[in-house]
Design goal:
elongated; 541 residues; 14 helices; alpha+beta
């Protein structure tokens, strides 16, 4: 921990060191063809990692966060005259620092360190937070109590001019559920606390806690500056579902040395994922619906001044690939731009628990590649439903192509290679099922009545047929295969015979016995079998 008293707030963002960060993010220049350094813009989130690599780093960093002690203080604060702000244990501070640096890793930002003077300021500020909150007056400028010294009050005000929270169990919750979440009524319009703590310029911090009052010191600009275009949260090749609940808003903070301050009326945002497309603009924005806010904040109170904040309505949780597209952004010279980036959410706590012993090694690989959907984890040995398999099919395509299914469909539609552009069913409106039908992977159980039977148990020959269409018709895999002399081949329906033989021939689907060629075409397919076949196909292509 340093002791430098580096409270020299230079609000000018610098553009010096270059951090070699890359993400599969494409910038479309519209309408100008002006060349931009590097040919594209990128958010601070990646170092050229694959999904598997970034996922591994996130899991390791998350697991390395130490638990804070139940008793947080070395010296317990005193909240009545004569007041004493107390001191936190080093273990309490280190746990909070690790938590913050974990979130900075998620945003692609360098780690920060603790500073003794910042810790002292935050601790005194936390005393004012606790005292003012007790009277229902939580604010950055509470009134001085008559029995409080001017010196203590002045030091507390210096600390409380930073992100503050009240009411959480500990500093970890204040960070996770408060400052980084940005979903409270007071934070939604600015996500100011998040922006301060995810400021690229931040180099050192301090934390304070008195009772249920908390402070995180963020008025620092001594970090090693990185070359960035915008800080997006969430972003990156991988992002943990647990760290971004559906109530949290998305945010994109633009570097003011590159971008002009965005005009709210010009900004539109599209978020595509899980088979759905959400569109945002300021004319139809509402906190209870699809929400969009552009916060300029040109006094730099929140680190980076220009932020675009959005949150879709009716999302239960984020899983799989999501793509963000922002139009209406301009460079300083007025050049119009469309920013686009993608991130893939995964379950950081997922494991093969409950799976068959023979399946666990491959399931771990399938998890690492993002091929295990949340539906599968509710019981690996259970029979997979037709709807669950369709969700996994779309997830597979998005993983393979690195773009949302809607975009894949739009590309195929533009080239007249979409199998069923107007596909629909009378017994389901799940967008993933409709997308699978549009691509020709599924055709339903009754074409005349347009039935799909989403809750029906998937049969093995049906799984083979869907996988064959996915591999050959959609991805274009050339599959050479010989006819297989199954002992129960008379039970395989004519429509499925080629698919069964082809998927067996390339070792995507295996037989039910090791000594005989038994396929069991009418047997149900399990979730773990489904995940493993997607992994095997993924490794082939």
């Amino acid at each position: 921990m340093k002791s430098t008293m580096r409270h020299t707030i230079k609000r000018t963002l610098k553009h010096t060191l270059t951090l070699a960060l890359s993400l599969i993010v494409l910038l479309t220049l519209t309408p100008s063809t002006r060349a931009v350094t590097g040919g594209y813009f990128r958010p601070l989130a990646e170092t050229g990692q694959t999904f598997t690599e970034r996922r591994a780093d996130i899991i390791a960093a998350r697991r390395a966060i130490p638990s804070a002690p139940d008793a947080p203080y070395d010296i317990t604060p005193k909240v009545s005259a004569p007041y004493d702000e107390g001191t936190l244990k080093s273990e309490t501070l280190e746990a909070a620092l690790a938590q913050l640096n974990y979130y900075r890793l998620l945003a692609g930002l360098p780690a920060v360190e603790l500073d003794d003077d910042y810790v002292a300021a935050a601790q005194t500020g936390a005393l004012l937070v606790a005292l003012s909150s007790a009277t229902g007056q939580l604010a950055h400028t509470p009134e001085r109590r008559e029995d409080m010294t001017d010196d203590l009050y002045a030091r507390g005000i210096a600390g409380i001019a930073n992100p503050i929270e009240y009411g959480y169990r500990n500093l970890s919750d204040a960070l996770t559920l408060g400052w980084l979440a940005g979903d409270s009524e007071s934070q939604l319009a600015t996500v100011g606390d998040r922006r301060q703590l995810l400021n690229p310029a931040l180099g050192a911090t301090g934390f304070g806690q008195v009772g249920r009052g908390y402070v995180a010191f963020a008025d620092d600009d001594t970090g090693d500056y990185v070359d960035y275009e915008y800080v997006a949260y969430p972003a990156g090749a991988a992002f943990s579902t647990q760290d971004f609940p559906a109530s949290n808003p998305w945010s994109v903070s633009l570097n003011p040395l590159i971008f002009a301050a965005p005009t709210a009326e010009d900004i539109t945002v599209t978020l595509e994922g899980a088979g759905r497309v959400y569109e945002f603009n300021t004319t139809n924005s509402a906190a209870s619906g699809n929400y969009l806010r552009v916060d300029i904040n040109d006094d730099n109170a929140y680190g980076i001044p220009n932020a675009i904040i959005f949150r879709p309505a009716n999302v239960a949780s984020y899983t799989g690939l999501y793509k963000v597209t922002i139009s209406g952004v301009r460079l300083l010279d007025g050049t119009a731009l469309t920013l686009s980036y993608s991130t893939r959410f995964f379950d950081v706590d997922a494991s093969g628990d409950g799976a068959s012993g023979w399946a666990k090694p491959e399931l771990e690989l399938a998890e690492a590649e993002g091929l295990v959907t949340p539906e599968f984890r509710t019981g690996f040995t259970a029979a997979v439903t037709r709807a669950e398999f369709c969700v996994a099919v779309i997830n597979f395509l998005e993983t393979y192509y690195g773009q949302p299914a809607g975009e894949i469909i739009a590309i195929r539609a533009a080239t007249n290679s979409l199998a069923a552009p107007n596909a629909w069913f009378t017994d389901t409106s799940d967008p993933r099922i409709i997308q699978a039908a549009q691509l020709g992977i599924i055709k339903g159980t009754n074409e005349e009545k347009k039935l799909f039977d989403p809750n029906g148990k998937l049969k093995r020959q049906e799984a083979a047929t869907m996988l064959y269409r996915l591999a050959s018709d959609v991805i274009g895999l050339q599959i050479s295969h010989a006819a297989v002399n199954w002992t129960d081949g008379d039970q395989i329906q004519a429509y499925a015979k080629e698919s069964v033989d082809a998927m067996f021939g390339i070792d995507v689907i295996r037989g039910m016995e090791t000594t005989r060629l038994v396929f069991s075409p009418l047997g149900t397919y399990t979730r773990e079998q489904s995940a493993l076949t997607f992994l095997r196909l993924f490794e082939i292509i």
